[in-house]
Specification:
This protein is α/β, with parallel strands linked by helices. The protein contains 12 helices and 12 strands. It has helices spanning 14-32, 45-49, 57-64, 90-99, 122-125, 163-178, 194-207, 220-229, 241-254, 292-305, 309-324, 342-352; strands spanning 2-10, 35-40, 68-73, 103-109, 129-135, 147-148, 155-156, 183-188, 214-219, 236-239, 264-266, 271-273. Strand 8, helix 7 (194-207) and strand 9 (214-219) form a beta-alpha-beta unit. The protein is globular, with a radius of gyration of 20 Å.
Length: 353
């Protein structure tokens, strides 16, 4: 297969973790006789530092022409005082919207050897393997009107969804569930919000097209509690934009670290694949970042972006094999345990391939 992969290293630890992911993709390409071409672009704080927009037009053009996009992280406290549309993080919202990437897949699982890395008892975490399917281009993050009042004493954001927006992401959840344990939990706040009532009605309608999948509904507060108490009870968790942002981070924390979490943003244009963690400027450039989320994002790129499911499985097995050797990055190491650096962990995964 020939594939053009746009790499957006971004800010903070982004360049370090994407370097590890690229090394993995290069090894896969060499072993499986694929031809991957990598091209870089600016996004976020590094683009602003170059006196460009957070999402430069050239980067967007390259994204539209790519087979898939691998992103590191965006976020730089140097630009925190800028208006929302001129902060590094706005680039992600713009990119998702421009490419029509309406479905965000965020898997979180309990990896062997990490049973004690999270805050829960190992017996509670055992068997945890949840796929959060988050609607990505609607809801509070995009709704209009929005903004601060002229006197700075009030503000408004708008929560808005349409039936087609809800239906298309629901189809993603049910299709994914068919390849997993055939259970979907849809999360809303239908006891309070009219938008959530529409969400529940629409998801229920779509469920009729998937009689082999069991659908249940949970209010978001109850879902958050159950995710902490019985995380292994979830299979596919379907949510709107803001709820999904919060619950997927909770799932990652339960499994040991946000550094473990990959994600895929899918829809009309080329898929965008990125670790869930932020730019972590306090550890940038110190070889301390956990590259697993980025490496597993590369695996999702192979599967969901290029249709190379077998190659993706090889990457996941390589990560699991390295974790079984007790190699631990700083966020996963227990007191007194040796720390494996970002570059070193990436090399171990490549060697396993």
């Amino acid at each position: 297969m020939n594939a053009q992969i746009l790499v957006l290293p971004g800010d903070g630890i982004g360049p370090e973790v994407t370097a590890a992911a690229i090394a993995v993709l290069e090894r896969i390409a060499s072993k499986a006789a694929h031809a991957f071409t990598f091209r870089e672009g600016l996004i976020g704080g590094v683009a602003l530092a170059a006196d460009l927009d957070p999402l430069p037009s050239e980067t967007l053009s390259r994204a539209r022409g790519a087979s898939a996009i691998l992103l590191g992280a965006v976020g730089d406290p140097a630009f925190d005082q800028r208006p929302p549309g001129q902060r590094p993080e706005s680039a992600l919202l713009q990119l998702r919207s421009a490419l029509g990437l309406h479905a965000n897949l965020r898997p979180a699982r309990m990896w062997p050897g990490l049973e004690s890395a999270g805050p829960l008892k190992p017996e509670v975490l055992a068997g945890t393997d949840v796929m959060v399917v988050r609607e990505l281009t609607g809801g509070l993050y995009y709704g209009e009107p929005r903004g601060l009042s002229a006197d700075g004493q009030s503000a408004v954001n708008t929560l808005r969804y349409s039936v087609p927006e809800i239906a298309r992401v629901a189809h993603w959840a049910f299709r994914l569930a068919r390849g997993r344990r055939r259970r979907v939990v849809s999360v809303d706040k239908a006891n309070v919000l009219e938008v959530s009532r529409l969400w529940r009605q629409t998801v229920t309608t779509i469920a009729a097209e998937y009689p082999d999948v069991t659908l249940t509904h949970e209010y978001v507060d109850a879902a958050a509690m159950k995710l902490a108490l019985t995380p292994a009870s979830f299979d596919v968790l379907l949510t709107e934009n803001m709820f999904g942002d919060i619950l997927s981070d909770e799932a990652g924390a339960l499994c040991g670290s946000l550094g473990l979490l990959p994600s895929a943003s899918l829809g009309e244009g080329p898929g965008l694949f990125e670790p869930v963690h932020g730019s972590a400027p306090s550890i940038a450039g110190q070889n301390l970042a956990n590259p697993i989320g980025a490496i597993l994002s590369a695996a999702m790129l192979l599967e969901h972006g290029l249709g190379l499911r077998e190659e993706a499985a090889h990457v996941e097995r390589a990560v699991e094999a390295v974790l079984k050797t007790s190699a631990r990055t700083a966020d996963l190491a227990s007191a007194g345990q040796p720390i494996t650096g970002t570059r070193e962990f990436g090399r171990l995964v490549v060697d396993r391939l």
